[in-house]
Amino acid sequence: MNKSFEKIRSSNILKYEYKSHDLKQNFDISVLNHIKNLEDKIFNNYTGISEEIINLLPTIYLTQISDIDKKFEKIITEFDKLNENGKKQIFSYIYWKYKNEKSNEKVDVLKIKRVIGFKGAKENYIEPVGVKVKCLKCNGKAFIYFYNYDLNCTKYKCIDCNHEEEREINMHDKFDNLLKCSCSDCLNVKKELFYVIKDNLKNVITEINSQLLNKYFEINDTEIPSQFIMEKDFKLYRSNLTKDEREVLSFSPKCKKELYMIIKDIEERDSNYNNKRNNVFENLILHRVIYSIRKKKGKDEIKDLLFKRAIDEILEIQNFNRYSIMAMNEKIECLNKLYNYLDDITFDEFFDGKFFKIKYNDHIIFKFEKFRIKYSNDLYLDLSNEYFTYDIIFNDCYMKKEKRTNIPSNTELLKKGLIKNIFKSSAEINKYIYLKDEYTDCIIVPNYNFSKIFNVYSLEHFLNDNELNYLKTCELDFVICNKEGIPFRVEEVQKGDHHNDNEWIWKDNVKKRALQILGIEFEEIF
Known about the structure:
Elements: H1 2-10, H2 21-45, H3 47-62, H4 68-71, H5 73-81, H6 84-98, H7 109-116, E1 129-134, E2 141-146, E3 154-158, E4 164-167, H8 176-180, H9 184-218, H10 227-237, H11 243-250, H12 256-271, H13 280-286, E5 290-296, H14 299-314, E6 315-319, H15 328-344, H16 347-350, E7 356-359, E8 363-368, E9 371-376, E10 388-394, H17 396-399, H18 410-416, H19 426-431, E11 443-449, H20 450-453, H21 465-473, E12 475-481, E13 487-493, H22 502-518, E14 521-525
Parallel strand pairs: 13-14
Antiparallel strand pairs: 1-2, 2-3, 3-4, 5-10, 6-9, 7-8, 8-9, 11-12, 12-13
């Protein structure tokens, strides 16, 4: 089919556009001769009205178009009585003579059309300028007929081989030339196209379906990441987790269903407070907390899917009623009717212009019964998404509880000066004791400065200057101490969307890392 379309494209002469210097010179000479011929005709046959409108050209040019009918009522009435041929000759004479770049007279073609009584494109009423050229098909004598000075509306006629073409303004449907031309070359191309369509259209769906299947099964399934990859990704991305991601992980989901349920619940909760879109799932994939695994579907299932998709993409079948949606079984039935019709149709019936139309962008459109069937010769199917099944794999490294730094005891840390005792006496300890169900006989210190509890300088070998400076001024939400006032656990409340910002992700991670180095239990409360 592609070879036939290429022959159709090469059959067009006007695609070369003939923009040579010689053609321009010949065109200019032909325009002058054409003006002289038109002048002889109109002043011999329509002297009075021709002279009158030519004398009125400056006035018409300066008149608002809305005032044309009223101001020039008399001459408009005279043109109404004139035959169509006379109107065209006068209009053509005015256009070619006064729209010439060498003319000093200013004319408005739109207003002239209004006076004469023409509507639509000016090219519909202009007698063209013919320029003799050599035919690129047979080297014989041919003419290009130009309908304006822009040279973008033309007709072509070869005297020797009878090849004909026409090109209208903004015309993209150049294949129509093939249907209109009856020269031997175009006739041979049409015959080839006729037999190619009859012989190949029936098999095109099956052939393309087979090609798509082969292409599909060449695609590899996504490999499940190894333990090494998971550990590498964990080390690379764990400090980039947003507050929402950390909250999801705090529930320790064990399967895809649990993960979706947790994300859904979080999104529903957050939607009560703001309209911001939650990107938790995308971020979990981005930070390698989960991996999206793609797998191919079974051969029978995918064959059926691709067959239906090929029909929709290659042969777009529509009812003439645009609002009528056709089911797949109706489309297949319609397609079979088309196949049967192609078996019986003759060459003349095929090219009578009622059954089908060839479009410039390699489309063939069939008008069959009450259906419109568009065959596309240019197909691209993205074998993704619906053609595969998708699952997720958890990165085990994120699911494991992070180990505390192995330091002998808080008492030894106190002796080494790594941890400060925030209470100086048992009286102060008793004053701030606040019993919780989870922490009986413990002291809860809320919103307390990190550096007043822990010795920040003891962390110099573990953290950089920016991290140390932040720890000197930051506060901890809840510090849980034993009876001696020695902290053993810190809990941070992660409320508010600001914890999803990069700055706060960094701050939260600095606290977390420092407490792990100190051997302090740490938990985020969401």
